[in-house]
Amino acid sequence: MFVSTLIVAISTVKMATTMASGEERAASEVLRALARHLNCLNEDSKTTRKRALEAIKRETIDKGLSSGVLQEVFTCLLKSLLKCLSDPMERCRETAIHMLGDFIRCVPQPEDSLPYLMPALTQRLGGKEIVEPAEELRLSMVEVVTLTVEVCGRHLAPYLDDMMKILQRTIVDPFPDVKRESCKCTVHFAKSVPEHFHMQAESLVKPLMQTVSHQHSRVRVSTIEATGAVIQYGTGKNVDDVLSHLAQRLFDDSPQVRKAVTVVVGDWLLHLRDRYSYFHKLIPLLLSSLSDDIPEISQQAADLWRQTGALWEQENEDDLKDKMDFLLTPPDLYPAGVARPGLGCRELVVRNLSNLLPALARDVVDWVAGTRVKTAQLLYALLLHAEDHCTQHLQLLLSTLYRACTDPEGDVVTNVSAINIFMECVDHFLSPSLPVSYLSISLSISLSPLPLSLAPLHLSLAPLSLSQAVQSVVSLWKVQGLATVADLYRQHMDQLLQWLSASQKTWTSYSPQRLQLQVIATQSGPVIGEFLPLLMPLLQNCLDPERDPEMRLHIFTMLS
């Protein structure tokens, strides 16, 4: 048997040697036939050089040679073809670029060309100035770079610097198609050499952010996808540099752009290396897509969010054992027709709510109406997840609610159903055990021109309107068994004034606390005189000359 095996092995080696020799002879014959054409590439005549290149293409690529022969021929032709990339005649450069792409696509070992190919492409594409003047040829070159990444893969690791120089320049190329192809190339390159890509991924963030708002929607989509790969396969330190840009694209007119943001953010929540550190920044972006006008986008966001919650639940199973057993049933009065989010999703929101609410409180008074609408929708989604945990943030929630309901833009309030749903959500989850907060919101409503459509606010009182706030305060002191309304104020005045003092440094003329102070000062009668040590410092701070002039005017009017 050993002898038979040895004979077979010897025969195989001889056959391979014979085949190799045959391919070498075939390659030599081809090269001899090409010798005259190669010499013509050095001629001064543009027409001669063009015809020589076309002849070389007919004798190699177009002739259907075997891959082994093409490999030998390509090795010998490579330097000449690369030299043609700088030919003064555009047609010659075009032919050379296409031939390079054809060879790289067909030869069995395209990586052998990298030591010569990459420096040449870097020289043409990666400089500070545009070397290749023709847009279509720059596109063809970038397509060759993408092809090289696809077929050479990890062999490109030693050429990380060259690749980054090329991509930094071509991502901001004036030609939109070059931008798109460069973004596509970025994604492939990041996935091909992840163990090396992270070392220089940061250098692509700036050019990508310069391109993400391009006027062509397809360019914006490609840029967002490339940004996803750069952050995913980078160090993870540049998340903050791109979040504001991605958040802005959630308002994009193109559904495909908004979908791209949704997919990228969802992927980060599932796979980003340091995603736990960025949950409070990524969650709002994905939850915002839940209310997108396009069903496909909102459904995709919902699917990604469910996956995120399920993964987090799986990774933190030990911490959630008790809740898994006892928190499966929705709470009483849960909004009808609304699917309750999974435990993992609810826990993610609860644990990040303290970081999310301050930002939303700012955005609810943003100067752009679209931002305020989006914020109201996001508030609703967060409350559905937080459920009774929202009582821990009652003061900020009520303040934010007040601002949303008194928005100066009528369309934001009356035409956004999410605001109504949001109030109903508060109605379902708040516990009627905080009379100070309820009294203060009742007092605010008594001076606020709230639309009657925004009725339900379950503060252990009947739904409040302007024609009912005062009566509600009367009902409150009766429920508590007090003799007069003055006794109600006296019982809670200390807490009310301390609560107002805690936030007075941030007051403006639009702050609900300013209205609450006005009601307390004018409606409590002689009771307010019993608490002057608390009231006077509050008034002094509000009347500081450095404060908002309009707010100071309101305070002076109140005092008069």
TrEMBL record:
<keyword id="KW-0732">Signal</keyword>
<feature type="domain" description="Dynein axonemal assembly factor 5 TPR repeats">
    <location>
        <begin position="40"/>
        <end position="323"/>
    </location>
</feature>
<dbReference type="InterPro" id="IPR011989">
    <property type="entry name" value="ARM-like"/>
</dbReference>
<dbReference type="GO" id="GO:0045505">
    <property type="term" value="F:dynein intermediate chain binding"/>
</dbReference>
<dbReference type="GO" id="GO:0036158">
    <property type="term" value="P:outer dynein arm assembly"/>
</dbReference>
<dbReference type="GO" id="GO:0003341">
    <property type="term" value="P:cilium movement"/>
</dbReference>
<dbReference type="GO" id="GO:0005737">
    <property type="term" value="C:cytoplasm"/>
</dbReference>
<feature type="domain" description="Dynein axonemal assembly factor 5 HEAT-repeat">
    <location>
        <begin position="333"/>
        <end position="419"/>
    </location>
</feature>
<dbReference type="Pfam" id="PF25757">
    <property type="entry name" value="TPR_DNAAF5"/>
</dbReference>
<dbReference type="Pfam" id="PF24573">
    <property type="entry name" value="HEAT_DAAF5"/>
</dbReference>
<feature type="signal peptide">
    <location>
        <begin position="1"/>
        <end position="20"/>
    </location>
</feature>
<dbReference type="GO" id="GO:0036159">
    <property type="term" value="P:inner dynein arm assembly"/>
</dbReference>
<protein>
    <recommendedName>
        <fullName>Dynein axonemal assembly factor 5</fullName>
    </recommendedName>
</protein>
<dbReference type="InterPro" id="IPR056497">
    <property type="entry name" value="HEAT_DAAF5"/>
</dbReference>
<dbReference type="InterPro" id="IPR052623">
    <property type="entry name" value="DAAF5"/>
</dbReference>
<dbReference type="InterPro" id="IPR016024">
    <property type="entry name" value="ARM-type_fold"/>
</dbReference>
<dbReference type="InterPro" id="IPR057978">
    <property type="entry name" value="TPR_DAAF5"/>
</dbReference>
